[in-house]
Model the fold of this input.
Amino acid sequence: MASRRIWDITPPLGKRTPVFPGDTPFQVYWNTRISDGDPSNVSTLTFSPHIGAHADAPLHLDRDAADAAALRLETFIGRCVVIDLSDETSLDAIGPESVDLTMLPSRVLFKTRRQRPWQWTDQFRALKPQLVRDLAAEGVGLIGVDTPSIDPAASTLLVSHRIALSNRMALLENLDLAEVPAGEYELIALPLPIEGVEATPVRAILRALTASGK
Done:
């Protein structure tokens, strides 16, 4: 039986993984180690839930809103489209004029980079608030980006985030779309049911819609 091609769009987590300034970086602490005479290797991990590929929960911007454990799995599985803007040299925020808003599936991923950066940079393309409004009006329920945020790095108001979350849109950030051509795919990006937190890591993949998919 022919299988459908899979693209892993989850960047690896490790000490080299960039984090937003002020966020907790990835660290491994060893509780026990075989090399020290212990019977097994057991580690403790610390990191921000916004590290690497992750989903934001409504709690991110509203202290009374739902946490990561309440995110609906159905939102993160299904048909999506990858919009490739990586040939554009501009770092201006992406507006409605850059996107054909007709006939979009309910999940839209924006590819803005040809390769994944290995260190933090605030030079990335955000999404204009009007684009997020228009996507919500067209029935889009999930937005994914290959950048640390849908808002500019220096933003404190996080307007695009607020519009998305107020419209019950799911947000995936820090995806690795460098090797993914534009087109339609099946998205699988399952959030961990971590209670009481505002974001959660995901293991995100794209799968070709047919066995002969590109």
